[in-house]
Design a protein that fits this description.
Blueprint (H helix, E strand, L loop, with lengths): L6 H8 L11 E5 L2 E4 L4 E4 L2 H4 L8 H11 L12 H12 L5 E5 L2 H19 L6 E5 L8 H6 L16 E4 L4 H7 L4 E6 L2 E2 L5 E2 L2 H13 L3 E5 L23 E4 L10 E5 L1 H4 L15 H14 L2 H25 L2 E7 L2 E6 L7 H10 L2 E2 L1 E2 L4 E4 L7 H20 L1
Parallel strand pairs: 3-15, 5-6, 5-7, 7-10, 10-11
Antiparallel strand pairs: 1-2, 2-3, 4-12, 8-9, 11-12, 13-14, 14-17, 16-17
Helix pairs in contact: 3-10, 4-10, 11-13, 12-13
The structure holds pyridoxal-5'-phosphate.
The site of pyridoxal-5'-phosphate (PLP) has 15 residues, from helix 5.
Length: about 400
């Protein structure tokens, strides 16, 4: 008899208790499937929270990583490196940006964006122009600055004193924004779709009104595309579908396809205030991360992948709606591209976490976005038949939960 404690049991003894992971332990992944320690297969409709944009173990990513691993792993900001410059060039060629700053996580990219906005206003206008306007239910990361900019009270609880000068407004409320943004505002930060906040899209009208207000009051528009970026909604970045251009864009998650990397993209005009030594991070621009990210962007930013996102969106939406019609368990199916959500009702109201666990029993992994929202973010290259099978497993999961 095996008397060794399981990996899952050890987890609870060895790790800080701020996560409650699934009982199954993934050990291997390929495309949109992962296998656990017992060799059982699951449809991965999470992509590790919208990270593994090209699925697990993509051959081109493995090649990029191993090729770079044989050349050079790390050099620090005291040196440039080839993958770093190549990735910056690719991002700049394909977005509004003239300049890139690389770091390791979405929170750090947003931290850099907020610091840049404060610094820019400080240098161009003065210290009084320091107010940051954000939205309720926003999620921008877990550093103290980004958690304060975020719109969820419980994530700030007990961590005070918090950074000052951040005001929250209701998402999609133009009148509230008109009142909040003034000449002492240095930045407006927003997700084009609130991912953690329930997969709620900002309307085009709202984003365009925000852009005009920012222009009127000389406020920097920071677009947090950590979750929506890198093809997730059918264009390289979501702003390209919304008729606006931000001053600063943050990107992470899908950028490395599973390798930790993030970037803050901006213009020449703003970048110049980040003078020598004003900001930095040890791993920013790490050659391994940059080599992988360049491969991800090159593959994602192609008609093949972006068209697949649009086609699979239509299939996903229709599939979820059909499930909702049959089982009467959803009030709404929403989302853009392959960031989808279903809002629960009836006996399944507020059961998103229990459903995630039930999904594991039925061989499908998905996410939640608050207690009442099922969230789905499969790899962007998921095939039609794979999505059909995953939708079947989601339906079986919901049926089983309704029988309980
Ligand atoms: N911004 C958004 C929109 C996110 O969804 C997330 C993570 O979920 C973050 C920022 C934080 O990114 P990270 O966890 O990589 O710090």
């Amino acid at each position: 008899m095996n008397t060794q404690p399981s990996v899952r049991a050890l987890h609870d003894h060895l790790l800080t208790p701020n996560y409650a992971p699934a009982q199954m332990i993934p050990v291997r992944g390929e495309g949109v499937r992962v296998w656990d320690q017992a060799g059982r297969a699951y449809w991965d409709i999470t992509s590790g929270i919208a990270v593994t944009a090209l699925g697990h173990a993509h051959p081109a990513m493995i090649e990029a990583l191993t090729k770079q691993a044989h050349l050079l792993w790390h050099v620090s900001g005291w040196f440039s490196n080839e993958p770093l410059v190549a990735l910056a060039q690719t991002l700049i060629d394909n977005t509004f940006a003239d300049r890139a700053f690389f770091c390791n996580s979405g929170a750090e990219a947003n931290e850099a964006a907020l610091k840049l906005a404060r610094r820019y206003a400080f240098e161009k206008v003065g210290e009084q122009k320091n107010k940051i306007v954000s939205t309720f239910h926003a999620f921008h990361g877990r550093t103290l600055f980004t958690v304060t900019a975020g719109g969820t009270e419980k994530y700030k609880h007990g961590f005070g004193p918090l950074p000052q000068g951040i005001q929250h407004v209701t998402y999609n409320d133009i009148a509230a924004l008109e009142t909040a943004i003034d000449d002492n505002t240095c930045a407006f930060i927003i997700e084009p779709i609130q991912g953690e906040g329930g997969v709620c899209s900002a309307t085009r009208e709202y984003l365009q009104a925000a852009r005009s207000l920012c222009d009127k009051h000389d406020v920097l528009f920071i677009l947090d595309e950590v979750q929506t970026g890198v093809g997730r909604t059918g264009s390289l970045y979501n702003y390209m579908q919304k008729g606006i251009t931000p001053d600063i864009l943050t990107t992470a998650k899908g950028l490395g396809g599973g390798f930790p990397i993030a970037a803050m993209l901006t213009t020449n005009k703003l970048a110049e205030v980040l003078s020598l030594g004003s900001h930095g991070t040890t791993y920013g621009g790490n050659p391994l991360a940059c080599a992988v990210a360049k491969t991800v962007i090159d593959i994602v930013n192609s008609p093949e992948i972006l068209e697949n996102v649009k086609a699979r969106h239509a299939q996903f939406k229709a599939g979820l709606r059909a499930i909702g019609d049959k089982l009467g368990c959803f009030t709404e199916v929403r989302g853009e591209g392959l960031l989808m959500a279903a809002e629960l009702t009836g006996p399944l109201k507020d059961q998103a976490l229990a459903l995630m666990r039930k999904g594991e029993e039925h061989g499908v992994l998905f996410l939640m976005a608050g207690p009442n929202v099922m969230r789905f973010a499969p790899a962007l290259n998921i095939k039609e038949d794979e999505l059909t099978e995953a939708l079947k497993a989601i339906e079986v999961t919901l049926e089983a939960a309704l029988k309980n």
